[in-house]
Design a protein that fits this description.
Length: about 260
């Protein structure tokens, strides 16, 4: 990495980041990945002192193996933070997916996921599922790609008890999984990505979750990106004492290898 790239990396490490981590299961790159192993590492550190003492650190990784017609990847993330010495952020996430192309633009997929979030009363969520996905559109110049997926998953959730709450315990159910992905290469340096999920319970369509993950990535060097991301998650029937909608935004760096 050149001198300018090193200075840019140092500067971006010092940029303030929000307390929320962005966990996006989809790669934002428009081009098909090269054969073999690849990955991304991300790190964000933020702090504040004086009238309010606040610190937060987030680290994540995406590891991928691709050899057409198969793509396998794992996404992992952990974040913790404190305000005035009191912990107010503590969550972890792990997602693994297998994608097998069966025809031009068509593929089937299987996935598993585990996560926890202390401050939404989620002591554990595990799920397994699958479905099909299709590349619905690719522009002639290859800069715009639209992908859609449909499937379902089985989940098991364990909620932490809280004084006054009556919903602590274990909940199991099946949810549909519908998503739509937009990837756009604005120019050689900048790319945009958006993934929208809709996950209704099969037993009651009024019990649904929706998630929007959007990002803007700017190439700083051949392997280093500046990434600005937005994550809006909505649970129409959240646990008691938990808000329905969480919005997270973040500025950080991402190293590709």
């Amino acid at each position: 990495m050149g001198c300018c790239g090193a200075r840019a990396a140092l500067l971006l490490l010092l940029l303030p980041a929000t307390a929320g981590a962005i966990v996006n299961m989809e790669d934002s790159r428009v081009q098909e990945p090269a054969d073999g192993f690849s990955g991304e590492l991300s790190l964000a550190v933020s702090g504040q002192s004086g009238n309010t003492d606040k610190s937060s650190v987030s680290a994540g990784s995406r590891l991928q193996w691709h050899h057409k017609p198969v793509t396998n990847f794992i996404v992992v993330n952990h974040e913790s933070g404190k305000t005035d010495g009191v912990r107010d952020t503590n969550r972890s996430f792990l997602h693994a997916r297998h994608i097998h192309e069966v025809a031009p633009r068509w593929a089937w997929e299987a996935f598993g996921q585990a996560e926890e979030n202390e401050f939404t009363r989620l002591s554990f969520r595990g799920l397994m599922g699958g479905g099909v996905r299709r590349e619905a559109f690719r522009s002639d110049d290859g800069r715009l790609v639209l992908t859609a997926g449909v499937g379902a998953f089985y989940s098991r959730e364990e909620l932490e008890p809280r004084t006054g709450a009556t919903d602590a315990g274990v909940d199991t159910l099946v949810r549909g999984n519908f998503y739509f992905i937009i990837r756009y290469q604005l120019n050689e340096m900048v790319r945009l990505a958006s993934t929208t999920y809709y996950q209704p319970a099969t037993s009651d369509h009024r019990d649904y979750r929706a998630l929007e993950q959007a990002s803007l990535s700017v190439n700083l060097t051949r392997r280093l990106d500046l990434k600005i991301a937005l994550d809006v998650a909505h649970d129409n029937r959240p646990p008691q004492f938990v808000e329905k909608t969480d919005t997270t935004y973040r500025t950080g760096i991402e190293y590709r290898f």
